[in-house]
Amino acid sequence: MDEPSTAAGIMGANVFGPEGERLGQIEDIHFDVVDWKILAVMIGHGGFMGLGEEVDPLDWRLLRWDAELEGYVTGVPLDDEGDAAPAGLAPA
């Protein structure tokens, strides 16, 4: 599968850690409203059937598409408390 090229295609995409472990999925996208570049995505993880899910921001520049996994891979894992680092929505 090719990398999604629309917001609808990015939403719901799985996010994997550096070892291929599934960390969660993209729940929302934050854009720079001047040039419409993606700044960050919100990664949903944990919980069961939508209950107790945590959502944390992750800088878009830390993700790359992996066609084999059919999802995005980051070298920034979620910690034991479920926080993605670096937290925040730093501009690209």
From TrEMBL:
PRC-barrel domain ranges (all copies): 11-54
Matching InterPro entries: PRC-brl_dom (IPR027275), PRC_barrel-like_sf (IPR011033)
Gene3D superfamilies assigned to the protein according to its UniProt record, in alphabetical order: PRC-barrel domain
Pfam families for the chain: PRC
UniProt name for this protein: PRC-barrel domain-containing protein
Source organism of the structure: Wenxinia saemankumensis
